Amino acid sequence: MSQVARVYPGEKDQPKKLVYVWQRPVRLFHWATAICISVLFLTGLYIAFPVLTTPGEAWNQFLMARVRQIHFFAAYLWLVAYLLRCVWFFLGNKYARSGMPRPWSSAWWREFFVELFSYAFVRRERSTRLGHNALAGVAYTIFPIGLGLAQILTGFALYSETDPSGLAGRLTGWMIPLLGGSFRAHMWHHLFAWGFLWFVIVHVYIVVFDSIRDRNSLVESMITGYKSLEVDATAVGKRDQEGEH
Ligand code: HEM
Ligand code: HEM
Asked: Is the CB of 136 within 6 Å of ligand 1?
């Protein structure tokens, strides 16, 4: 079943139909992820480059220790959100499972390239999928999921260095020798952090761009849960909702 619209959505002013797409847990985990990643990135950069200096004895200030505490608190919170979102993949509605890459399917590749060409302004066709489209699915798989797992593993491995026989050490300690020692584990954790910055810049740009171009209330949808669909596109939308995977 084709997930690609021949029409360019949002071209004319059409009556809208609201469709409930993002359930409450998806929205909750999304904003928890957004806050935690922002806090982890900023505190992480401070740990690497402690630009603020305080007068007096370091042991009397506790500034770096406080920043590390915040980094670790956000890390635990994000770990919980990450794991619960994985569970919700199975428990949630069909949109919670949307976007999963299916490289064995030719329809998936077609949707992927339609989206890619549309962002490159090469073609005017768009995917009409209500959940994550193929391109978004690839982006989420590589960045928050894939890079996220790498960051969680390297982060907890570094965290466990003070107590290698603890739970974190037993679960992730193997990362340190695998990466070639503590220095290199720090280096990879640091490098991965910049991947998140790229993801967030492109992600927010695309969400706002899509929202304006397609008039589909995409920005609001991560708050209210509802995406709006032009009634003209409802025939396509209906098929999508049935065929969403
Ligand atoms: C640090 C910042 C952010 C991160 C790490 C982030 C991460 C993510 C992730 C992981 C998803 C997939 C959600 C899921 O299926 O559970 C997602 C989707 C989404 N995010 Fe964000 N997000 C961030 C900021 C924002 C902001 C500021 C907005 C609103 C302007 C936004 C709007 C959306 C929307 C509308 C979707 C669904 C889009 C789609 O159809 O693929 N995000 N985001
Ligand atoms: C989710 C699990 C995470 C854990 C358990 C974790 C843990 C840690 C630990 C233990 C350190 C070393 C602190 C020190 O040497 O005093 C560190 C440093 C750092 N973290 Fe994380 N972190 C996590 C996620 C993240 C994320 C998502 C980012 C960025 C988006 C990030 C960015 C950084 C940076 C830039 C550093 C400094 C690395 C250096 O140059 O040595 N961390 N983190």
From this structure: yes
What is the number of the ligand closest to the CA of 202? 1
Q: What is the pTM of this model?
A: 0.89
Q: Is the CB of 85 under 6 A from ligand 1?
A: yes
Q: Which atom of ligand 2 is nearest to the CA of 156?
A: 5
- Spans of all domains in the chain: 28-50+57-201
Q: State how far the Cα of 219 lies from the Cα of 212, in Å rounded to an integer.
A: 9
Superfamily assignment of 28-50+57-201 in CATH?
Transmembrane di-heme cytochromes, Chain C (1.20.950.20)
**Is 144 near ligand 1, meaning CB less than 6 Å away?**
yes
Interval between CA 14 and ligand 1 midpoint (Å): 26
pLDDT single digits (tens) 9-23:
545 566 778 999 999
Q: Which ligand is nearest to the CA of 50?
A: 2
Per-residue confidence (pLDDT) for residue 167, from 0 to 100: 96
Give the distance (Å) from ligand 1 centre to CA of residue 210: 13
